[in-house]
Amino acid sequence: MIRLFVAFDLPAELRVRLTGLRGQVPGARWIPAESMHLTLRYIGEVNEDVAEDVHDALGRVADDPFEIQVSGVGHFESRGQVRALWAGVTRNEALARFQARIETVCQRAGLAPESRRFHPHVTLARCRDTSPARVAPFVAEHAGFQAPPFQVGSFVLYSSNLGRSGSSYIPEVTYPLGSYVSADQD
Questions:
Q1: Choosing from 55, 75, 121, 142, which is the catalytic residue?
Q2: Would you call 75 a catalytic residue per the annotation?
Q3: Which residues of 133-154 are buried (b: 16+ CB within 10 A; e: fewer)?
Q4: Residue 59 has what pLDDT?
């Protein structure tokens, strides 16, 4: 079994800017810069045959490069507790269409539909025992955060290994945008 997800990698300069947002948030475990990404589709644990089907399907996704912009911050909560702090992504039709294509090919490869609505973001920290009131100063301080737009020219199929100090992510395959592989070129 292998745990997989599809994401955009981030430019090094953006990772540096995002790590600069770190602050005093009780219960926050900050994500290392090298682990920051923008998830397009969480796949989860699958066997090697399904992983190969997903890889084949992703290899057929053709699109042109486009720009995205990271801006603002917020948090996800569950049962009154903050679970994660994130930097958001400015609304972008090209990103929405691209993510929908990724979702479609994943379903065609045999995966169940994603149950959560796509909310593009970059996770900054995982939180434990943290109330919304405890993150409110962080969110207020960085609400106006805005990074320069950057062009995405590829997307990545990552594997994820869970460890005591958090997850480590390994890029398994990088798929360039602006190229197309037809079904009969396998």
A1: 121
A2: no
A3: ebbeebbeebeebebeeeebee
A4: 95
Q: Is 121 a catalytic residue?
A: yes
C-alpha to C-alpha distance for 176 and 156, rounded to whole angstroms: 9
Contact between 118 and 22 (Cβ < 8 Å): no
Average pLDDT for runs of 10 along the chain of length 186? 96 97 92 96 95 96 94 95 97 96 96 94 95 95 96 96 82 85 41
Element counts in the chain: helices (H) and strands (E): 4, 10
Count of CB atoms within 10 A of residue 49's CB? 9
Domains in the chain: ranges and CATH? 2-178 (3.90.1140.10)
Q: Active site residue: 37, 55, 75, 142, which one?
A: 37
Enclosing H/E stretch for 104: helix 93-108
